[in-house]
Amino acid sequence: MTASRPLATVGFVGATVLLADQLTKMLIRAWLDPSVSLSLIDGIFHITHVRNTGAAFGLMPGARPLFMATSAAVLLGIAAYWWIIRPRARWVVVALALLGGGALGNLIDRLAFGRVTDFLDFVLIGWPVFNIADVAIVTGVLMLIVWILVGPEPHEHVRESFEPTDHGGRTEAGS
Length: 175
Fold this sequence. Notes:
Elements: H1 6-31, E1 37-41, E2 45-52, H2 64-85, H3 90-113, E3 116-121, H4 132-150, H5 154-162, E4 166-167, E5 170-171
Helix pairs in contact: 1-3, 2-3, 3-4
């Protein structure tokens, strides 16, 4: 299935992710002191304000320049892919929007505050605290992996656009 307006789709989905991410982080920073946890479903799901100076799951704390460079590289990679390939498959367009919106959301935090605000805490499974940008990034990456594994073969699209044309019983290749 193709996106009828891929640029509008990527813009809308990416902006929605970015807005939801930045708004929720702003609310957490305003209403909940760092390290404070608010139980929404006791023993299962909490809102916990964490100041994360590392990557996902708090890995490599203090490597801010590396994470900012990685986010910038991801955003540039998405832009280059968009410019060169011009994707139209809705699945890919949405995946790229999720990935870009999430990467930009965490990059803004690192630039503005030197760290990322995390707050979604599934205490039942002991999962590290995360945020909406993280959810968007992981979802976007998983969607791209699924597309690579089970999506249409790229060569099918190329073959369609380079098939020889029939000119009075002969093809362009001279057969």
